[in-house]
C-alpha cells in the first residue's frame, strides 16, 4: 500500500512541476514577443512628383 501512495505522490508532484514549467515557458515566450514591435514593411519614402 505504501508503494502506491508514494507513486501517487510522485505522479502528482510531476504533474504540478509540468504545469509550472509550462506556465513559466508561456510567460517567457509572451515577454519575448511583447518586446518585438512591428516595424512596417521597410522604409517608406513619400511619393514625389518631379
> How large is the share of residues in beta strands?
under 5%
* Stretches with pLDDT under 50, minimum 5 residues: none
Written as H for each helix and E for each strand, in order along the chain, the element string is H
Number of helices: 1
Largest sheet: none
Q: What value does the Rg take, in angstroms?
A: 25 Å
Tell me the helix content.
55-70%
What is the 3D form?
rod-shaped
Number of strands: 0
- Output the structural class: mainly alpha
Defining key terms:
mainly alpha, 50 residues, rod-shaped
Give a structural overview.
- The structure is a single chain.
- This protein has 50 residues and is an all-alpha fold.
- The chain has one helix spanning 2-35.
- The longest helix is centred in the middle third of the chain and has 34 residues, at 2-35.
- It starts with a helix and ends in a 15-residue tail after the last helix.
- The mean pLDDT is 82.
